[in-house]
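Hello K.,

You asked for the raw outputs rather than the summary table, so here they are, unedited. I folded two proteins back to back in the same session to keep the settings identical. This is the first:
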Amino acid sequence: MKTYQETLDFLFSQLPMYQKVGKSAFKKDLTNTRALLEALGNPEQTFKSIHIAGTNGKGSSAAMLNAILIEAGYHTGCYTSPHLKSFTERITLNGQPIHEEEVIAFTELIQPQIKTIQPSFFEITVAMAFWYFSKQEVDIAIIETGLGGRLDSTNVITPEVALITKIGMDHMDMLGNTLAAIAGEKAGIIKPNVPTVLGSDQPEIIHVFEEKARSLDSELIVSRDRYRWESKEGPIGKQTIDLQVGETLMYESLEVNSAADYVLDNLPGVLEVLEKLRPKYAEINEQAIRQGLAKFQLKGRMQLLSRNPLVVADVSHNEQGLKALFHQVRQWPVDKLRIVLGLVREKDLSTVLTILPKDAIYYFTQSQVPRALPLSALKIAAMDVGMHGAAFANVNIAMAEAKTQAGENDCILICGSTFVVAEINDL
């Protein structure tokens, strides 16, 4: 492989990739990952880390922590998935994507192991991230799980602190069909004597985490119930809040660079993680927190693309995420809501369609991946439950039509699938 594109073509075509083929790419075993890392000299043992699992909120929590630690002056790695536009988004150093030359070098280095171990795409990318962070001698790396936690390829690290965000009913065919079962898989990232922060207040499943933490002699911090905030008026696109912890006003006029209310829901967990890090990372202070939250970027998460009309893209795709999204969107002062919608096959279609507003105008579409729900099936199912709209071959054609029809006080929302959002031009 001599070029970056040839390397990507190899990775995408030769290795099973969950984003393309779904469940068949999910390896419920850490054997491959351990074998890859052993061949590389166990790079995961050479750097400090934060480990994040959960159904919703992993990405925003990782982005906030990453930005704050960079502002504090730390040499910071971050591994997230999936990517939206470029493979290199998955692995960043101080906010900058991994260089293409490094992707080529790693793939060349690991060729013998690819042939003998036959890893998945995700297993290879995890190994690449750990190799890169070790090579770059990061002060700390933020590592987001893919699916689950217990058997996720990232679950070979011993972090400084773990964070578990909100648990929801997603990927049930792989993780279990009850909230408690899914929580049990996520709780698998809890390690002996490593503090774990619960970023969400879910009383019905807290016993799952308490039992796991108790069995491993690990501190469990439930963050959400101590935090209160009051939002201040401002334009859609970012938020300003007064944040109170217990009876103390901790941050007055704290600016958060996101339009999404659910980002605020993840803020307590982020702040608790920072508190746990502070004894070893003394540069984490109020200035770093303020600057990081004011600057952090979260592509595809209620991302403001334009105003007049308001155009927003959001990758929320499961029941919990979509409910939170539409709870907020319904509060926006817009004349008409126009929704560009595409889904993947695995979703419980009837459940998803009950969440979507029936009074919106729809522009049905599909992404160009094998997992996409066919456009014809989506349109028929949606119209059967009273949703009105037309079908378009791809997201950009659908957006163009929506913009043609929209008034300046309308809102165009692109949602339903990460892959639909990823195919937006100039995202």
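The second followed immediately with the same parameters:
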Amino acid sequence: VERAKQTGLPTVADDSGLEVDALDGRPGVHSARYGGPGAEDRERVELLLREMEGKHQRSARFVSVIAFCPSPRSSEVITVRGECEGAIAFRPSGDQGFGYDPIFLLPDGQTMAELSMAEKNTVSHRAKAFQKILPYLQNFIDSQ
């Protein structure tokens, strides 16, 4: 709502993160900053794997939340949530994607980093969230 008011325009925003059950949902919304300022993807993955050492519970999910504020003159905000369930692998695998993709195991046994971009776009948390927000965006466009 604040950004819509600042710009005077309809606004879409999103945030996403990795929730790991054995770590009480961490890193969550702090996924991009996990490991401190300046930490790179490889360092964040290594930190997460160290924290998972000895843990048998490895379930996790990527989560994306998208918010749409259609009018800067209103406090109306539509939010949707997309999730991709999986588990944390014991070691990285694959060279596609970014972030935690090399250690995020999908139910079929592949990591996100082993999928092509087209495959990832059918199962990812962001894809699921965007599919949910799309009707609201289309309705907004049609009403203009």
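Residues 92 and 103 are 5 Å apart (CA to CA).

Happy to rerun anything if the numbers look odd on your end.

Regards,
P.
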